[in-house]
Amino acid sequence: MNVTLYKLADEYLIAAEKLQEMDMPPEVVEDTLESISGDIQEKATNIAMLVRNWESTVEAMEKAEKEIASRRKAVENRINHIKEYLLFNMQRTGIKKIDCPYFSLSVRNNPPKVEIFGQPPDEFMRHPEPPPPAPDKKAIAEFLKAGNEVDWAKLVQTERLEIK
Question: Which has the closest alpha carbon to 106: 82, 90, 93?
Fold first, then answer.
């Protein structure tokens, strides 16, 4: 029977509560809870092993993603180089269009673009909105850690699972 960790934890808490109510000797309570916690520890260990396995899988995927992105970028660069090579030679020979059964090649004008080589007047400059103010959580944390109290913030201590 495959019992979940959640179910084991429920059983542990119920047993602890019942044993406390029964006024049993401390050794009996300790032995009973230890046997139940052993199952919890085994189940938790197996779950942690699963997490570790998945973390290794994620690392391998990230590595593969980086390698694929690198290869994709190399192919994209090669494509751009070959297209520039083809355009250069079509321009050099004055050929504007080539038709074949699979596709057609043609040399076209791009839309005009602005090249800036000096400082334009202010009327041609963009003035982006500054970002809205945001709380400086690091400064607030230091302020609260120093023993100060405010009604608009508090320090909250949470827990995390660490698998080493």
Answer: 90
- 23 touches 33 (CB < 8 A): no
The amino acid that residue 100 corresponds to is C
- Number of Cα atoms under 13 Å in the Cβ half of residue 68: 6
Assigned domain for 121 exists: no
Q: Is residue 155 part of a domain?
A: no
The verdict on residue 134 lying in a domain is: no
Give the separation between CA 13 and CA 78, rounded to whole angstroms.
64
pLDDT digits (tens, 9 = 90+) for 6-58: 888 888 888 888 777 787 777 877 878 887 787 888 888 888 998 999 999 99
> Range of 25's domain?
5-107
Quick: pLDDT tens for 123-158: 999 999 999 999 999 999 999 999 999 999 999 999
Domains in the chain, number: 1
- pLDDT of 1 reads 58
> Of all residues in the chain, what percent are helix, strand and coil, respectively (each to 5)?
60, 5, 35
Residue 112 lies in a domain: no
* Secondary structure of residue 149 in the 3-state scheme: coil
| CA gap 81, 105 in Å, rounded | 16
Return the amino acid letter for 161.
L
